[in-house]
């Protein structure tokens, strides 16, 4: 068939017209009016000024736009949108250029931009090149409680490029800046472009240094992929802590070389084991995302599966029934603190964990001791009696305290001897025991009481540093049916994001707020699996993230429209199954759903 | 390279040895002791008798094994396991052989068996051929309230095959039998086989005829794939009803040919429209799974988006603020029942819906009228005043009743004139209005009060037939944070599966239980999207399924171990993100977690 040349030209011309104009299948767009994006019918008159929702929200809320968490320093954003070429991103840093974490962070940043582009709707080509220059003071990548996470970011539109300059003390601050920059880039569905603002200046640093979640991989095994996806989500919200409650009574999924029986008998199956290389992979993955991994080895209670081979002499009440007589959840089990060999085994385990995790802090677990469990062991009772102790609370507390001291000695022996130690609140963290057994220069106490518990104030007054996980806001598993009976999980109801957002550490700490390192949301996995864990965590962990990074004075009502956009961002860029907070009409009609 | 023949033989022999023995990486197996599967260490002594968990559970609970819902007639199962060849399934039916629903059902049955095989762990070849013969009395595939769903199933092991005979009145009963048969086939992970029982005899039929869920695609748009996945889940639990709340005030995602403005302006976007062919595809997909699709067109309230072009004369209070003055959720809107043209538009919409859905019943919506909305229209008030009516409850109720009558006339005009009609409880379903306006031979009333509401008894006494959706058990969206403020959704707390399981219709109906057609769980989507909807529905809809199909007298405690296995089945075979009820330790240790 013969096609006249002019027809080809006409077809090309028509296509170019179609691509340059707004996709006519869109009926609604948005305009920024008084700090709100208002849904507006697209007409021939307004089609050059009408905005896609994501684009409008990018600048239409003071200077914050959709940034989450809110930067704590100066923010100045232009109100002008500029197209940006997703194919042409360049990130450079003289000092970091061969740093493996930096290389991973840059690749991740580029991938995140590509994820914003819907697969069926390719972009129009064109747009300016994005040149990012990162200046840091050190190539060191030590991530601990002393790490400075601050950064400054400027973006300037020049004739041929967008020039971004990031200044930070180290990789971790620079990484946060890339996270912020990514939030400033959105997909414009009406015009099929990636766009950003033409001018930005932000300085930023976190208010609290410990910001994270804890994950329980004993009650439910989560694959390496799920853990990585979760850690990637932490990075997107500038959370910096992954507390890994790796073992418990229900299963022992951690590969142990010397005491391989713990894993062999304790894992749910041979397919549900974290091998040494898996753990190291996760730790490195987390570090490239600015996230510390703090392992927990929970003792002297919370043991069970895996300890079968050591049952006779090293444990008490292992799998005793009825379980409520000896522990809160089946299977019951405590280690027997009167047996010297216990500490040899602990030393072996600690040594392997320190080698594998190389952690910046170590969580020793340590709550929910049942004296009835210890008291069920004749040899343990005999040991106490031989010492002239009575079988009452006073001496069981002494036994517990001595256990903690001896366990700590073994941990110190196989580590640098000065690791920050974390321990759950329990009877041992009350006076007089806490002062007697827990050195306040070594131990940070993770509080899981309710917000108003007077023991929090007492610990602050005693000079302890705290991590807050008050169950009445930060336990993300609450509100569902009980796994053990009908009715509800003990910590019900469900904690909605607003409660988490308003969970003020300033008010909790008062004058002693500087002793509060931060907070952690916990995700106990009695009724959680790989498929629903995302919805339990997100976006509620992001509400916590803003509380900890920005410590905002603004009410949750002002944060809500931003959190809705951030939730979409977690879904699209993070592949996270975040729980929707409102339906789409509310997102399209900002503020009109609030009562 | 030269390989001696004897070496090849040796290699083959070794491989065959390895495959015949239990995979040595498995440490734990199960044995059936006193109706419970007890976790047991695998030893050289017991390795020929030890069972995989799925296999043990298949027969180790009276005759029921893991069937869900429990068959209502005789059940006799052998306690002998027989290997079965997943590659060699043959399903035949003389009468149905070219019936398209039957062909789809057979293909689906075969696919379901393949889904049980883990991708990385291929099966050992071998096992008997499965020959299924289906005898039905009719090739008709009419699915409505008169459809007989009963079936008988027998399975006999013969020397060279497993012979299954299914006898049913029609395709739908036969389809249920295939569902039961599928539940009798499990993957044996220790021996890498699909297995079933060597002898089975089951007769079965449902106790209640209306068993389903309703899904709200207005507040959130769900893709065709998500709807199909949900319907497939219904089929797996022998639920037979998909009530499609397709439109509401928040969006109008249904393609309309004549009134295309409803869709154009009402859909969330052009990507979020159910085209005519999508809907027909879903209806056929559902039918092949024994599921009726009952569409709802909710009026006179619950309109909003899409009605912009008809605002001036056909609606009242459209998008008025503050919304709580005129409706429960934004955007507000009612049709104006005093305008004759409204009924012409309704007739057009009804006609298209009847053509598209070809439904066995039609839901007319009909609740949450705000007289303040109607009263806000001057022309409406004038119309009432001209008739000599006063602007009080009495006459607004009259207006409402007349609207229902006129709307019904138009629906009857474009359908067969005798469709069962369903309507939500409201002021209109109370006396004296219900008897005046709602013909009890036409209307089935869907009750969404709480369980103890006296109005349920009154409706039964007035002779109405009911579908039960009491919000205090069957509203699956409850328990989460409010979408409009902090605090909780109005119908909180969360309804755990036990509450749903114990939600007795017998007790509710008493002597009039035969007027109760069944029940529906509702999934309102204010805070639900494609990613978390599965976890809201499953396995709680399965708890409802057993209540409705089997109407069991047994306590939920006895059902729990079976429901845990059924939940796994929904995940593995149905690709559904069912909410886990207990962690894996409880599944491995049957009954030991219950308080």
TrEMBL record, chains A, B:
- The regions listed as transmembrane in this protein's record are none
Q: Name one GO cellular component term.
A: plasma membrane
UniProt keywords (A-Z) are: Glycoprotein, Glycosidase, Hydrolase, Signal
SUPFAM superfamilies, per this entry? (Trans)glycosidases (SSF51445), beta-N-acetylhexosaminidase-like domain (SSF55545)
Question: By its UniProt entry, which Pfam families does this protein fall under?
Answer: Glyco_hydro_20, Glycohydro_20b2
Question: Which transformation does this protein catalyse, written as a reaction?
Answer: Hydrolysis of terminal non-reducing N-acetyl-D-hexosamine residues in N-acetyl-beta-D-hexosaminides
Its signal peptide is 1-21
Xref: CDD domains? GH20_HexA_HexB-like
Q: Give the Glycoside hydrolase family 20 catalytic domain ranges.
A: 208-551
Which residue positions are annotated as catalytic?
368 (proton donor)
Q: Which GO terms describe its molecular function?
A: beta-N-acetylglucosaminidase activity
- Which residues are in the Beta-hexosaminidase eukaryotic type N-terminal domain? 130-184
Q: Which GO terms describe its biological process?
A: carbohydrate metabolic process; glycosaminoglycan metabolic process
Assigned EC number: 3.2.1.52
Similarity comment = Belongs to the glycosyl hydrolase 20 family.
The protein's name in its UniProt record? Beta-hexosaminidase
Query: What organism, scientifically named, is this protein from?
Result: Polypedilum vanderplanki (Sleeping chironomid midge)
Provide the taxonomic classification: Eukaryota, Metazoa, Ecdysozoa, Arthropoda, Hexapoda
